Amino acid sequence: GGLGSARARSPASEEEAGSEVLSHCSSASEGTSPADEGAGSEAATEQGQEEEAEDRLKEHMDNLLDKSTRMRQAALQSLRLAFSSRILSEFLLERRLMLTDSLEKCLKKGKGEEQALAGTVLTLLCLQVGSGPEGEELFHSLKPLLISVLTDSTASPGARQSGARALGMCCYIAAADLEDLILCLSCLEGIFSPPSMGEEASATTQHGPLHCSALQSWSLLLTICPPSHIKSILDNCWLKLSPLLSSSSVTLRILAGETIALIFELAQDLEEDSYYQDTEFLCAQLKILATESNKYRAKTDRRKQHSIFRDILRFIENGEYQEETVRFGLECIYLDSWARQRTYQAFKEVLGAGICHHLQNNDLLREIFGLGPPLVLDAATVKTSKVSRFEKHLYNSAAFKARTKARSRVRDKRADV
């Protein structure tokens, strides 16, 4: 699914889903020790659980070399779940070379689903290892293989899609040289660029998800481009992005619009006045997409498209961005720019329900979003901060009533408030 349609909300259910993933990965039951047991007994229980969890992880890593394809895929699924829901940096730093070799074999010899899962696990491994020398080494060792999978027209669309996501995320996290960044941008751009006249027209429809992943990764890397390279991108990107606004895929149309808004934002930061000469024509295109009423489009697709393209048009015409808030635990982050939203959505797609846990505890993510060191909270503070299920129900009921009254006042007027 495309990230353009996910507008960075943070419902209460997301935290519950994250906690379910964490409990699923835990190797032992969550029952707490009785009150009469001492702190030493609790510490011993925790240590036992931790050792059992590490043993299971080691077993999954060993299974990556199994002769059975089904066994390797099951091991990759388990590692994906564990890496996305727990912080395992120290454990993985000691075993990164062995794990890298195993993932390389899965990417080389595997097919379809196995390659796609290996790309996802590799992305999560890079996120766990971080942006230090170990992360750079990991990225450089597997970058050629990721590019090979991405550009291989005989590989499955799922494997190429995962390769595009892995290449963008790993480059964002661990690339230290400008040459690596430019190479990855060029490779991704070659995927989503409009097909040549000799290519079949069905290619865009057939590889829609692949084009979406490539465009997402490309726009993510734009957020870390130096100003000198941004200026060169501004000169020719419009020829590649404007045709995507007419794509049959609503996700690709939305991503193209959001990428255009991101480029406008980056150009404003550079104080570049001539980044797009025919702004009136572009705004006319965006207005059509913000009010399109073609019956052959699904109603849900039209609603999603209208909402997002109104935001894009408002930003390009007036410079207004609708700030969004993402809450996790006792903290929150503000998405007050297209660049910040693109970064958050990229990590959210990879981590899924584990995004809240990583925002609270992953040093890399906290550095990227300027959150500082992880908070150290005692059990009493955490318990008092949680809202009961009954209180959530009351709040949701009140919000629903208020929203219904507000809509009723303007429903007959058909006003665009």
TrEMBL record:
<protein>
    <submittedName>
        <fullName>Interferon-related developmental regulator 2</fullName>
    </submittedName>
</protein>
<feature type="compositionally biased region" description="Low complexity">
    <location>
        <begin position="37"/>
        <end position="47"/>
    </location>
</feature>
<dbReference type="InterPro" id="IPR016024">
    <property type="entry name" value="ARM-type_fold"/>
</dbReference>
<feature type="region of interest" description="Disordered">
    <location>
        <begin position="1"/>
        <end position="56"/>
    </location>
</feature>
<dbReference type="InterPro" id="IPR007701">
    <property type="entry name" value="Interferon-rel_develop_reg_N"/>
</dbReference>
<dbReference type="Pfam" id="PF05004">
    <property type="entry name" value="IFRD"/>
</dbReference>
<dbReference type="InterPro" id="IPR039777">
    <property type="entry name" value="IFRD"/>
</dbReference>
<feature type="domain" description="Interferon-related developmental regulator C-terminal">
    <location>
        <begin position="362"/>
        <end position="415"/>
    </location>
</feature>
<dbReference type="InterPro" id="IPR011989">
    <property type="entry name" value="ARM-like"/>
</dbReference>
<feature type="compositionally biased region" description="Low complexity">
    <location>
        <begin position="1"/>
        <end position="11"/>
    </location>
</feature>
<feature type="domain" description="Interferon-related developmental regulator N-terminal">
    <location>
        <begin position="22"/>
        <end position="317"/>
    </location>
</feature>
<dbReference type="InterPro" id="IPR006921">
    <property type="entry name" value="Interferon-rel_develop_reg_C"/>
</dbReference>
<comment type="similarity">
    <text>Belongs to the IFRD family.</text>
</comment>
<dbReference type="Pfam" id="PF04836">
    <property type="entry name" value="IFRD_C"/>
</dbReference>
